[in-house]
Design goal:
Length: about 525
């Protein structure tokens, strides 16, 4: 057990030395770290030694005990103070109590009285430390998994549907600090090169990246969609470029260390100095992110890089078309992994990369057939019903003009992505149904975890986490906690079981942590709830 550090401030040397020498400090779990004859001398020593308990007289020269106590409590709110005085004046006691001191003892102080006061103060320190430990544990459990309320907030933020006042109000409710001079957004995703969903390798790498990025207070992470995350970076004109590079380096280094079967991309937005500009910043990052479909072998997309990648040519010869950019697999990959918001920028870049070939009637027909066929193939690989594909995809006229080529491509790609998402939603619903059934049967298991549930239903943990929050409206931990609290309330009202017994029955190894969580959720202790009391 860690010893509790004690410091004494007393101007009478006989009293000071008597207090110091009469207590067998270590025997009772304390460590005497120093003493001083007045507050002025005590203060720098306290700043250096950082004791847990300060014992101080009221009346001393230079700086009295009340002034010392006020200063110490302002600088070190965790230090507990025991005041001793030779005066039974109520005014001193009142002022000491107003300051928030733990104990007020009258001289002469006996050994037994001091030990009792010290042990009572130590008990309070331990209780507060325990509560802090529980709070850290509680926040860590929830921090690991996104809160649905956070995701909903960021969705509105990047859509531009919130006023600046609403942004601040909602961020304050969610305890998010968005204050900064400048902002930028980085979007990234990690997936298996042969699949459109997370594999175990991709899940591990993504989890590692999230844990690394969460260590930086200037990064706020939120999920863009099932397979991509965004990092909101806060800073000023000097620090923001460094923070952007740091974020990119973290993602690049971890992904390059991982398996060569992983497909990873990231895109950096254009900086803004306004919260209201974050929707535009996100749009810029998302548009850059869409270029991964055109240049799948390139991993990092920045505004500067995209300017360099513009291809200008007046040569309309069909034989000069860049075959690499015309690769039909690009279309197939886009339908498998793209989003509706990426369709138009993808289409514009794809067509412009053909360098005028769409002006040939023969080539236009070949292009449209290729697009249609590869959309169909992508949907079949996504296990969409062939009959639905045949009925759902739009047809085209062979005499289609250049502008109609673009419109058709947008139409067929959006239709394909919607069909893919509908099928994925069906499968996702099935997965969540299985997961919910498993959780309802095992929520009281103290060792239950997202990884364990994912393994039990044969899906990657990161993908399960994304599906879960998206479809249930709660994170994995929030759902487990909600189930446990409901069962606890039922048992408290319908049984005579003790709080500790209920804690073990619903999956908590530590009964005191159960009481902490219960109070956080219900606003009262388990015993108060049982008695019908509320706080």
């Amino acid at each position: 057990m860690e010893l509790v550090k004690v410091f004494i401030c007393e101007d009478e040397s006989i009293v000071r030395e008597g207090l110091r020498d009469m207590i067998p400090w270590e025997k009772h779990g304390f460590e005497f770290v120093g003493d001083a004859p007045d507050g002025e001398m005590a203060l720098p020593m306290i700043r250096k030694l950082k004791p847990d308990i300060l014992i101080t007289d009221i009346t001393m020269p230079f700086m009295d005990g009340l002034s010392l106590s006020k200063t110490v409590m302002s600088e070190f709110p965790n230090i507990k103070i025991i005041v001793i005085s030779g005066y039974s004046d109520f005014e001193y006691a009142r002022k000491a109590i107003e300051l928030g001191v733990e104990q007020y003892l009258l001289k002469p102080v006996t050994k037994a009285d001091m030990i009792t006061a010290l042990e009572g103060t130590r008990k309070k320190i331990n209780e507060e430390n325990e509560q802090k430990d529980y709070l850290r544990q509680y926040e860590q459990e929830f921090k690991k998994f996104e809160r649905f309320s956070h995701r909903a907030f960021f969705e509105k933020l990047v859509e531009g549907s919130l006023s600046v006042q609403e942004i601040y109000e909602q961020a304050n409710k969610l305890h998010l600090d968005l204050a900064a001079d400048e902002y930028n957004i980085v979007i990234f995703s990690v997936r298996d090169i042969h699949q459109s969903t997370y594999t175990d390798d991709a899940s591990v790498v993504t989890e590692d990246l999230l844990n690394q990025l969460l260590q930086y207070p200037d990064y706020i992470i939120f999920r863009c969609n099932l397979l991509a995350y965004a990092v909101l970076i806060k800073g000023d004109a000097e620090s923001l470029p460094r923070l952007e590079n740091k974020c990119v380096d973290i993602i690049k280094k971890r992904c390059e260390e991982a398996s060569h079967t992983l497909d990873w991309h990231l895109a950096v937005g254009v900086r803004t100095n306004r919260l209201s500009g974050l929707s535009s910043c996100y749009s810029d990052a998302n548009r850059a992110f869409a270029y991964r479909h055109i240049f799948p072998s390139q991993h990092i997309f920045t505004p500067e890089l995209l300017k360099e990648e513009q291809y200008e040519s007046s040569d309309n010869d069909i034989n000069k078309i860049d075959a690499g950019k015309f690769d039909p697999l690009i279309i197939r990959y886009f339908v498998q992994t793209g989003t509706l918001s990426e369709v138009e920028p993808f289409t514009d870049e794809y067509i412009s990369s053909l360098e005028g070939g769409e002006r040939s009637i023969l080539f236009r027909y070949y292009l449209l057939v290729s697009i249609r066929v590869n959309v169909e193939l992508a949907l079949k690989e996504a296990e969409v019903d062939p009959e639905e594909i045949s009925k759902g995809l739009p047809t085209f006229d062979m005499n289609i003009n250049e502008e109609e080529v673009r419109n058709y491509m947008i139409d067929v790609l959006k239709t394909g992505i919607r069909m893919r998402e509908t099928e994925a939603q069906k499968r996702g619903n099935d997965i969540i149904d299985v997961a919910i059934k498993y959780l309802d049967q095992h929520f009281s298991d103290p060792d239950i975890s997202l990884d364990g549930v994912a393994e039990a239903i044969n899906i990657s943990s990161n993908y399960l986490s994304a599906l879960f929050s998206n479809k249930v409206g709660l994170s994995f931990v929030e759902y487990i906690t909600k189930k446990r609290m409901a069962k606890a309330k039922h048992l408290l009202r319908t049984s005579s079981k003790k709080s500790g017994e209920i804690a073990y029955e619903i999956g908590y190894k530590d009964p005191r942590y159960f009481s902490f969580v219960f109070k956080r959720h219900q606003g009262c202790t388990p015993s108060q709830y049982r008695n019908g009391e509320t706080e």
